[in-house]
Amino acid sequence: MRTLAGLAMIAVALIAIVLGGIAFWLLAVVGSLFMMAEWCNLHGVPARTKRIAQFSLSVPLAVMAPASLVLQVHDFFSLGLLVGAAFFIVIITHRRELGLGILYCGLPVLALVIIRRQHEGVVFALWALALVWMCDIGAYFAGRAIGGPKLAPRISPNKTWAGLIGGVILASLFAAFMHRAYGLPLRMTLATPLLAVVAQGGDLYESWLKRRAGVKDSGNILPGHGGVMDRLDGLVPVAPLAALLVVLPHFYR
Length: 253
Hints:
With 253 residues, the protein is mainly α. The protein has helices at 2-19, 21-42, 47-63, 75-93, 96-117, 121-146, 161-182, 186-213, 228-232, 235-247, and strands at 150-152, 156-160. Helix 3 runs antiparallel to helix 4 (75-93), helix 5 (96-117) packs across helix 10 and helix 6 packs across helix 10. The longest helix is centred in the C-terminal third of the chain and has 28 residues, at 186-213.
């Protein structure tokens, strides 16, 4: 069941990447709203407050829609709305962790939408998502095959240094393949090992949240995989950094 669910999620993500536009944005939005609900659950937020947080997040997410739905795309305006939504939810609920949750769940969507909108958006979006997948796969198999010292035993007892290294290597090999086969820019190829480490950091952060909340998974919506946050925890910090690498040349024009 876990394998089938994993393959199905990858297939859905690949289809959305290829289609782009509304399909890609809509998938990202749905994932973000589920993540917001799980974030609230991990922080013990009441149901009513959780709905308010999701509604607050939905406003900037709606503005991130592709140009076919809105008259003109304004990324800085979307970013400003995200920050504004974070301040709003903190002011009305007096819970700072919800403001952080708005940014945690919203920034990756903005980053992915920016990445996919580029002329080579299919290649760039595939790189950003798949490097996280490769990191997870490499870490899993290297950790099981080699074992050894634990990476952060108090946070996630199953993660090892061997797994971290295996994940970085596999993600780097994938980026090298993308560079050679599809012309992935060198700056993004060379940055992939660092982004793989960042992905592992995102995984550890979510593990810390779950340990603090006393739960094994962030949710149970994905058979064999837990919640949406459990699958996207590594992508959350990677996506904004990947978007910066993608748009970096535009700042020098």
